[in-house]
Design goal:
Structural class: alpha/beta
Strand content: 15-25%
Number of helices: 20
Oligomer: single chain
Helix content: 40-55%
Low-confidence stretches: none
Radius of gyration: 21 Å
Mean pLDDT: 93
Largest sheet: 6 strands, parallel
């Protein structure tokens, strides 16, 4: 079985390949094709994967090839993993900088930065979806390109339910809560619902019993894990739920914007500089065996330790706990999803899929993030309780913004793009929205289509 990774020179590709190395069942991935437009990144990543395969010392490691030809990459693929970054990390750093100059959040998927990233990415994602439909019509597409829900919805216009979005945030949150409650994560049912980077755990059932109230009643336990330290026990009890970490940008917006403005460097700029160093080192001529992998592992450890540092500073949450740094995120979700479809091994996973009739506040085509039953026919959203008003308000407001991004990307209309910025809950003025679009248009040639 062939897997194609779009964005194959991306930093997190070794996580996916490492997960594949541990899969020895019948029907496993036997060949991985890396597609990327940057030959230097492709070369560096190919070295890291070779080091990974050598370290694993398995006789049936998936073969790896690299190409800059999209159609060549897609031909014969059973699964396509989409993890592209339009504009690269330079683009992310600009997204953050332009927003912060206007006094609003510049995070890559939330607020003004997420709108800008979506406006750049949706036209490219739509073209990729058309190419997949033409060149590999039988392939299943697993999307991790951010903003993941928005991009999945854009690709679904061409691919329907054969594109499924994934994110590691709900998985990590559920795992931390389950362990606190003394359960194995794989044995717990997580009642989670929302949009990508905008969801809540409303219950966690172990043996049919909801154990979340027990956690909410224990302030010490609540503040012993990452989300508890971010939000605080009092606020979590008020909500009666555990929010996805990205909701910190909404609930503590002013505090977070101030922390970002006071930081010496934005997250995007930090990652840009860090990864420049890694790719230069991993691509150096004459590198001994294992050195590229060692460089990647050092870089990844630093990346994970500094994740959401400004939010933790704003909340007084301190450094990340060691248990929050372990692997087990999106690469395992992706592998479980591929297994379930390819082998008809039923699995329950939190995924980004079209709503159907799951949430009454949204239309059938809206992509939401909910538990799904996965089998050979794809991912099927499971029934969930409806959202309380405060959550429904946020979800519908952000979905309205996503729809304006989709409209602007299709029409090229500046008015639609301004509307996308202005309607976002974290942008507080139409005048600011107009200045944001002007700033992003000046920073990104990829937005020249807006007129």
């Amino acid at each position: 079985m062939r897997l194609t990774i779009l964005g194959g020179g991306g930093f997190r590709v070794p996580l996916v390949y490492g997960a594949l190395l541990g899969d020895h069942a019948e029907g496993r991935v036997s060949h991985v094709t890396l597609y990327d437009e940057d030959p230097a990144r492709l070369a560096a990543m190919t070295r890291v994967l070779a080091d990974l395969a050598a370290a694993a010392a398995v006789p049936d490691a998936p073969a790896v090839t690299a190409t800059r030809d999209l159609d060549e990459a897609l031909r014969g693929a059973a699964f396509v993993f989409s993890a592209i970054r339009v504009g690269g990390l330079d683009g992310r750093a600009a997204d953050e900088r332009v927003a912060l100059a206007e006094g609003v959040l510049g995070q890559e998927t939330v607020g003004a930065g997420g709108v800008a990233y979506g406006l750049r990415t949706v036209p490219v994602a739509r073209e990729i979806a058309r190419r997949i439909a033409r060149t590999a019509p039988g392939a299943w597409v697993i999307n991790f390109t951010n903003p993941a829900g928005l991009v999945t919805e854009a690709m679904a216009e061409e691919l329907g339910d054969r594109v499924i979005g994934i994110c590691d945030s709900p998985v990590g949150l559920g795992r931390r809560i389950a362990r606190l409650l003394g359960a194995r994560p794989e044995e717990a049912w997580i009642d989670y619902v929302g949009l990508n980077h905008l969801g809540w755990v409303r219950g966690l059932r172990i043996g049919g019993r909801d154990e979340l109230p027990r956690l909410l009643a224990d302030a010490e336990a609540l503040e012993s894990f990452e989300e508890g330290r971010l939000f605080g026990a009092e606020w979590l009890r008020s909500l009666g739920a555990i929010p996805n970490e990205y909701l910190h940008y909404y609930y503590f917006n002013r505090d977070t914007v101030r922390a970002y403005q006071e930081a010496g460097q934005t997250r995007g700029a930090f990652l840009r500089d860090q990864q420049r160093g890694f790719y230069a080192e991993a691509g150096r001529a004459g590198l001994p065996a294992g050195a590229a992998l060692a460089a990647w592992e050092r870089t990844r450890a630093e990346r994970e330790a500094t994740y959401m540092a400004e939010n933790r500073e704003a909340a007084g949450a301190g450094e990340r706990d060691g248990s929050d740094l372990e692997s087990g995120g999106y690469e395992k979700v992706a592998l479980a999803l591929m297994r379930a479809i390819a082998r008809d091994e039923r699995a329950t996973l939190i995924l980004n899929v079209r709503n159907g009739s799951t949430l009454s506040v949204l239309d059938a085509g809206a992509v939401i993030e909910v538990p799904c039953l996965v089998d050979a026919n794809g991912a099927h959203p499971m029934g969930v309780e409806q959202l309380p008003l405060h959550a429904a308000g946020l979800v519908t407001a952000v979905k309205a913004v996503e729809r304006e991004v989709l409209a602007a990307a299709a029409s090229g209309s500046r008015a639609d793009a301004v509307k996308a910025f202005a309607l976002h809950p974290l942008v507080d003025s139409v005048a600011v929205a107009r200045r944001l679009l002007d700033g992003y248009a000046a920073a990104h040639p990829g937005l020249a289509y807006l007129r």
